[in-house]
Every structure is written in C-alpha cells, then in structure tokens.
Specification:
Layout (H helix, E strand, L loop, with lengths): L5 E3 L21 E3 L7 H10 L5 E3 L21 E3 L9 H9 L5 E3 L23 E3 L8 H6 L8 E3 L11 H11 L5 E2 L2 E2 L2 H14 L8 H10 L15 E8 L2 E8 L4 H12 L6 E6 L10 E2 L17 E6 L1
Parallel strand pairs: 1-2, 2-3, 3-4, 4-5, 5-6, 6-7, 7-8, 10-14
Antiparallel strand pairs: 8-9, 10-11, 12-13, 12-14
Protein name: Tubulin-specific chaperone cofactor E-like protein
Pfam families: Ubiquitin_2
Keywords: Leucine-rich repeat, Repeat
Length: about 325
C-alpha cells in the first residue's frame, strides 16, 4: 500500500511484536499505537521505516520511562501524543525533545511528573514547541508554571486538574495561569483576548496585595500596570447572570443568561427557544459599548464560559443559521 498515509493499530497487543516483515513506508504521515504496549525498540523500527511520519500516538502503553536512542533524530515528527503513561521524570521530556527536535505539539496528559527542573537543562531542545497538554500532571508549585515560559514558542496550553490549582476558584485558576504565561494566546481550549489578559493580570496583582510573600511575577506585572489599590468591599466573584437581548430573524426577545455556563450550553438553551439545532447555529455577541466600533463577535469556542466575555446587562446576542 504505497499511498497509505494513516495507520491505526490501537488495541492490538504488540508486547512481543517483531519487525521482521516491516518494510519502508514512504508516504505514511500518522501512526496510532495507543494501548498496544509496543516496546520502544519496535517504536524506533517504525520510525526508521516511516521517514515522513509527522504524527505519532503512544498513549496508554504503560510506559514508565522513554527509551529512545541518543544517537538518532527524527526531524519530520511534529506531533506526539503520549498520554496516560506512568512517566514520572522530566528527563523523559528531554529525551523526547532531543529525538524529535522539530516537535510542535506535545500532548502528555495524565502522567506522574511532579516538578519541572531548571530551564537551562532543557529549554534549548524544544525550539519549535507551540502546543502542550499537561492536564492532570502532578505539578504543585507555581515555579513550575513559570518555567513553562521557557518553551520559547509556546502559545497554546492545557493545564487542568493539576494540584497547584486546587485552592483557587475556577475564575482564579484561569486568571493566575494567564498572568503567569504572558506569551500564551490559548488556554484550555479558549482564546485569551487582550481585555481578558489585562483583567487577569490586574486581578493577579490584587490577589497578592495582602500577602506577605509575593511571587516574582507580581512585581513584573506591577511594573506594567502600576500600583493598584485593593477593591475594598467589592465582591470580586464574577456576576452570575445578565439580562440580554437576543435577535433571531425578525424576532427579538429578552433573556436572563447564566454567566457560569458555557457557549455550548447557551446554544442549547437558544436551540430550545428558536428550534435551531446547535450544530446549525452561529452565535454572535454584541457589546453595547463597543458595537459601533467592533460589531458582532462570533462565539466560536463552545467550551468557553460566558463570564470570560465580560457580558453585562443590556448586551445583545445575534442568532444565525449556518
């Protein structure tokens, strides 16, 4: 099959696989070996036989370490998925970075890694990494989060279910992560708009105003935003509801929306109201103060919470069909 570009061998037991009949496959771009328990030696044989491979899936293989040769590099690989393995050492990432120097996306959720060492040990081996998923790692120190900035091209990150976030509210978790990661433009699947970043950084400064110990990032942000006064006697929790206007075709109605819900949940509510399936719906938000300048803003990210758009009473939504 010389034109084969995608091969999925998941859930085939490959613990005792051999490469006797493995021939070079020039055009293969994606290889999926999830839950196969394939040995690293066989993974290397696949890589040798697939010189144009760009995407490799190795999740749920019970790997406790990464065993790749130190004398080989596979420069075409751009995406690696290696979730749900009991990896516990950052050295495994160093091995990955050295073996795949042009890696752009590393999806490594649900591992046992609990700390990130000094960036000088590893930052130079990830020159092109733009996207990472470290959901449910065991990171428990904000210094580890700060060290993620040493992925020089990082712009898209997922960081959910990590212990360092446990003591914070949902809103504070997002604000702290945004404040610590100035180059990231997408967090947990949602774009970070400029206004949200500024609000998050200011909230981060105020969060530590009453603390005796303040992180280095506090002073960096204070240099940008200036010294801020605490918001005395002000409830900093996000507003829970807003009274908005909804337009669909020639119909206009008033709706009280729960700002804690996601865009997808709002679409479901509007689907019941207007009889338009969410999959066929386009939803636009109109800021009453900015509509003459910016016009409608399409809500493209279904998992994003409504409060992150700073929705207020009197704002509008426009429902359209695809």
């Amino acid at each position: 099959m010389p034109n084969l570009s995608f091969l999925n061998l998941s859930y085939n037991d490959m613990k005792h696989a051999t490469t006797e009949k493995l021939t070079e496959t020039e055009n293969l771009r994606s290889l999926v070996l999830n839950c196969t328990y394939v040995p690293w030696s066989i993974v290397c044989s696949f890589l040798d036989a697939m010189p144009k491979l760009q995407e490799l899936h190795l999740s749920l293989n019970d790997y406790s370490f990464v065993d790749l040769p130190s004398n080989k590099q596979y420069k075409n690989l751009k995406q690696l998925y290696i979730c749900g393995n009991p990896l516990s050492s950052w050295n495994d990432l160093i091995v990955i970075g050295k073996t795949f120097p042009n890696l752009e996306s590393l999806i490594m959720a649900n591992t046992h890694i609990a700390s990130i060492p000094e960036p000088s040990l590893w930052e130079h081996i990830f020159p092109n990494l733009q996207t990472i998923n470290f959901n449910y790692m065991l990171l428990n120190d904000w210094k580890d989060i700060d060290r993620l900035n040493h992925f020089k091209k990082l712009e898209d990150i997922r960081l959910q279910g990590i212990p360092v976030l446990d003591a914070l509210s949902e809103l504070e978790r997002r604000q702290h992560l945004i404040a610590y990661l100035p180059s990231v433009i997408r967090l947990n699947g949602s774009a970070i708009l400029q206004k949200e970043r500024e609000d998050a950084e200011r909230a981060f400064i105020r969060f530590f105003l009453s603390e005796d110990e303040r992180p280095k990032r506090f002073y960096e942000l204070e240099a940008i935003h200036g010294k801020l006064d605490p918001l005395v006697d002000v409830d900093l929790s996000p507003k829970k509801t807003a009274q908005v206007f909804v337009h669909f075709c020639e119909e206009q109605s008033t709706l009280t929306v729960n700002l804690q819900q996601s865009v997808q949940e709002l679409k479901a509510t509007l689907s019941d109201k207007f009889g338009l399936r969410p999959a066929k719906m386009r939803l636009f938000y109109i800021d009453q103060d900015m509509k003459d300048v910016c016009g409608p803003d399409e809500l493209r990210y279904n998992n994003r919470k409504l409060y992150s758009y700073q929705i207020r009473d009197g704002d509008e939504f426009l429902v359209d069909s695809k």
